[in-house]
């Protein structure tokens, strides 16, 4: 009926957009239209993709949160404290992460507000340049923060997440082992602590077999929280790989296959044996 926003937008279309794409052609009243295609599809709104390290840093830059020197410590902190887990190179919030976030939003809404954080960064820059009094800025911040902290200490009791029970029995006392979280990720422990101190690593099997000793390839975590894969017979066998193994064997040499993911490309299944050049896409694997 009228050009609306197109009066402005049409003058500044993105270079990548093809001319006329997505716009209706010129129409006349009473004009007969031809049915070109009917697609019986239903679309739902999809949630935004989870953050990768690069996407999280880019978002913090856009919001004015942190500085280049603080990006790595921020990522390291949320990993080490168990607020997130890395799955397929994406951050996935844990139950602990949800609980902590909800408490911060309820009792410290100003501190966790992105505008407050960006504003404080600008004030710190002003202090460095000698344009602001650091004592006054600290006083303005710490007064309300101290009151909020006192209120939170009075209202928030001790919060403990119930441990997840497993079917595996403790060999020392017979109780069902539970999953707990430590500095280097999750592990199995006896709920009878401190009477029973039995613990063991929580090994997530991949279904692949070690090419050196025939042991099982399991998922492990480095000290920095990065996922890698190694032989369950460690330390007797030191085989490790950063690539995710699959249980399927290579049809050429019999070694196990790994998943290679490259940006902008479909995942590929390749042989873990460096001397074997077998590879195929994930789509081809599904067809087979």
Q: What does it look like?
A:
The protein has 288 residues and is an alpha+beta fold. The protein is 29% helix and 23% strand. The strands form four sheets. Strands 3-4-5-6 form a four-stranded antiparallel beta sheet, with no helix packed on it. The protein has a four-stranded antiparallel beta sheet with strand order 7-8-9-10, with no helix packed on it. Strands 11-12-13-14 form a four-stranded antiparallel beta sheet. A hairpin with a 7-residue loop joins strand 12 and strand 13. It is extended, with a radius of gyration of 27 Å.
Question: Any chance you could write out the topology, listing elements then pairs?
Answer:
Layout: H1 6-9, H2 53-63, H3 68-80, E1 84-87, E2 90-93, H4 95-107, H5 114-128, H6 134-155, E3 164-169, E4 176-182, E5 185-189, E6 199-201, E7 204-209, E8 216-221, E9 227-231, E10 240-241, E11 244-249, E12 256-260, E13 268-271, E14 279-281, H7 282-287
Antiparallel strand pairs: 1-2, 3-4, 4-5, 5-6, 7-8, 8-9, 9-10, 11-12, 12-13, 13-14
The CA-CA distance between the termini, in Å, is 53 Å
Structural class: alpha+beta
Helix proportion range? 25-40%
- Count of discrete alpha- or pi-helical segments spanning 4 or more residues: 7
Biggest sheet: strands, sense, closure? 4 strands, antiparallel
The rough form would be described as extended
Could you spell the SSE succession in H and E letters? HHHEEHHHEEEEEEEEEEEEH
Mean pLDDT: 81
Please provide the count of β strands. 14
Strand order in space, largest sheet: 3-4-5-6
By oligomeric state, this entry counts as: single chain
- Residues in β-strands, percent: 15-25%
Contiguous uncertain segments of 5+ residues: none
Report the radius of gyration as a whole number of Å: 27 Å
């Amino acid at each position: 009926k009228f050009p609306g926003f197109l009066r402005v937008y049409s003058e500044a279309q993105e270079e990548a957009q093809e001319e006329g794409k997505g716009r209706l052609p010129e129409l006349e009243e009473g004009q007969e239209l031809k049915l070109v295609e009917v697609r019986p599809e239903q679309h739902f709104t999809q949630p935004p993709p989870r953050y990768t390290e690069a996407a999280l840093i880019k978002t913090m830059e856009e919001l004015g949160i942190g500085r280049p020197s603080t990006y790595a410590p921020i990522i390291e902190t949320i990993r080490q404290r168990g607020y997130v887990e890395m799955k397929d190179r994406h951050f996935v919030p844990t139950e602990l992460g949800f609980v902590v976030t909800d408490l911060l939003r309820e009792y410290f809404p100003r501190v966790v507000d992105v505008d407050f954080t960006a504003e404080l960064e600008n004030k710190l820059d002003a202090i460095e340049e000698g344009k602001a009094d650091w004592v006054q800025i600290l006083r303005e911040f710490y007064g309300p923060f101290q009151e909020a902290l006192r209120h939170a200490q009075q209202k928030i009791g001790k919060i403990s997440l119930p441990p997840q029970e497993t079917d595996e029995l403790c060999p020392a006392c017979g109780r069902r082992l539970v999953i707990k979280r430590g500095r280097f990720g999750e592990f199995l422990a006896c709920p009878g602590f401190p009477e029973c101190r039995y613990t063991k690593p929580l090994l997530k099997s991949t279904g692949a077999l070690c090419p050196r000793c025939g042991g099982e390839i399991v998922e492990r975590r480095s000290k920095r929280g990065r996922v890698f894969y190694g032989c369950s017979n460690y330390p007797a066998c030191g085989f490790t790989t950063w690539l995710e193994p699959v249980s399927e064997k290579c049809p050429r040499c019999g070694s196990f296959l790994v998943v290679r993911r490259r940006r902008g490309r479909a995942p590929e299944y390749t042989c873990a044996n460096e001397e074997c050049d077998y590879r195929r896409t994930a789509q081809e694997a599904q067809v087979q």
